[in-house]
Amino acid sequence: MKFHLVTLFSEACDAYLSASIVGRARKEKKISVHYQNPRDFVENKWGKIDERPYGGGPGMIIQAMPIVKAVEKALRNKKGKRVIIWFSPGGKQFTNKDADALTKYDDVVLVCGRYEGIDERARKILKTLAPVKEFAVGEAVYTGGEVPALAIVDAVTRRIPGVLGKDASVEERRIASSAVYTRPETISYKKKNYRVPKVLQTGHHARIDEWRRIK
Q1: By CB count within 10 A, which of 67, 100, 137, 158 is most buried?
Q2: CB of 185 within 8 A of CB of 200?
Q3: Does one domain contain both 65 and 112?
Q4: Parent domain of 158
Q5: pLDDT at 168 over 80
Q6: How many Å separate Cα 196 from the centre of its chain?
Q7: What is the pTM of this model?
Q8: What is the mean pLDDT of residues 175-202?
Q9: 58-81 tens-digit pLDDT
Q10: Same domain, 161 and 130
Q11: Measured between alpha carbons, how far is residue 30 from residues 45, 121, 194 in Å?
């Protein structure tokens, strides 16, 4: 599975995507991560990618064609099933179900905006290249699309068979509680003892599952 991040700041993404589970998945070639910098596709000698918005307003807007050309290069000669991810605070909230659905694609392009956004014409043109899915990741507004893109790569990668070792390691596919415990059985802090719930020490799986359902 190949992820293509269209971003001005690949270095900010690659540190995260080279670590832990995602980094191991890359080393084991279960996924690959590629970057396209829209600045490489501008047609002015200054490398300027943003312009003032028509109609006025604060901030600057990323031009459409550098984004389109970056996506074109990412998808060039790709024959498999592909999709383009566009981020918007008003988009559909990204869920585990969406992450599962994305594992069916061969190439996933994630367009990371910056400043006050991307010229809307880019999205309209991109729809002629591949299906475009518009997502929001959380209800907050971020400085750029890199944080949501990293969240999606992480969520999708951990669902790819073999990445976590066992499918049961995907927490939302099993009965899980937000409260988890490990050794030691008792922790003492300022003359007060904090103990692991007894039910978790019984080995009685039905009771443990019930505890997890209601916890």
Answers
A1: 67
A2: no
A3: yes
A4: 2-167
A5: no
A6: 34
A7: 0.86
A8: 85
A9: 889 999 999 999 999 999 988 899
A10: yes
A11: 39, 34, 41
